Amino acid sequence: MARLIDKAFKATSRRDVLRGLGVVGMTLAAPKFSYAAGGTLVVSNWGGDWNDRTVRFVEQPLVESQGIRIVRDLGMEPERKAKLLAERRLRRGSIDVMHLNQGDVYEMHNQEVLADIDQSKIANFADVPETLKTASYFVPWLYSGVVIIYNKDKVPNPPKSYEELWDPKWAGKIGLTNQLYFNYVMMAGLIKGGNVTNAEAGQQRLLELKEKTQPKIYAAHQHLQAALVTGEVDIAINYKARGLQWINDGAPLAIQYPGEGAIAVMFGACLPKRAPSPELAYVYFNAMLDRKAMAQLAEASFYAPANGASELSPELRAKVDFSPEEQKALNFPDYAYVAQNTAGWLEWWNKNVAV
């Protein structure tokens, strides 16, 4: 158990702790482009184990190996988005590649700080299924869904739906993380026949959840993992990929797909309009979608890859992805709605739930 707890914490930097609030199918290969080696590329990303895997499988072997120096600007998305917005009036910004989830990318695009991406300059973009090519300003990378993760040794009959989490019998046993506040608002809006845009009802239901089950709130994913391992909580609401990571680390956990259908999440990257080295950003985008790198990331992180031709074994693809029935039931957020409300949700969450 000590090894598991150490593993849960070692990837979390002090900065993460302090700021942790808030497919198949192939097409013809795209034309390849060559770039002069050298130069500096500034990459804005989350820290912790997410960044560790990005460095290991993408940045070091596929970008830095070309003589490109990467400067890493790490932090939670609110502070990184704020920095991008603060630089929009500058002639030259400081960020070349910005890692965000799709909802945040939509928000930043509406703020007119992102450039359209020339997909013909990204050879590996040809492997992305058409269903994931959602916007001209976004490079999709990894995706998953919000599920119920539970200790199978202590919870023989887990909740089968989001709505069952409101049962008082789970009092003191549920763990949430500040990092997924927006997902929890949508989750609460979805129950009782609602939908992911039913945020006003969702906020009221989260207050009911707090009253009925007193969920424990953690700053970051790794802290929630440690709480599951030590038995501080028995149930967590988090991404399927995170649950699979923790199971792989040896925790006695299992995953329940919610009856309402999981809330989908997709991560990727974008190109700021004021990027100082946009051509180097294209080198990075192509490396992100490398078939081998995507397979390695899926094996290490258990997120499903956006590259439909990634070199996953059938067994691994079945584990990290969703069944056809589960895929059909996925609830994709209304990103326009999320973009309009996410700041207000965060403020409300901090005042009413995270306290």
Topology order in helix (H) and strand (E) letters: HHEHEHEHEEHHEHEHEEHHEHHH
Secondary structure class reads alpha/beta
Number of strands: 10
| Overall helicity | 40-55%
Rg on CA atoms, Å? 20 Å
Strand content: 15-25%
**Could you give a short account of the major beta sheet?**
10 strands, mixed
Low-confidence stretches: 2-36
Q: Helix count, per DSSP?
A: 14
**What is the global morphology?**
globular
End-to-end Cα distance, whole Å, is 29 Å
Give the averaged pLDDT, no decimals.
89
Core attributes:
41% helix; 355 residues; 14 helices; globular; alpha/beta
Q: What is shown here, in short?
A:
The chain is α/β, with parallel strands linked by helices and 355 residues long. It has helices at residues 2-10, 14-19, 48-63, 77-86, 102-110, 181-190, 199-213, 221-230, 240-248, 278-288, 291-301, 314-320, 324-329, 335-352; strands at residues 40-45, 69-74, 97-101, 139-151, 174-177, 216-218, 235-239, 253-256, 263-270, 304-305.
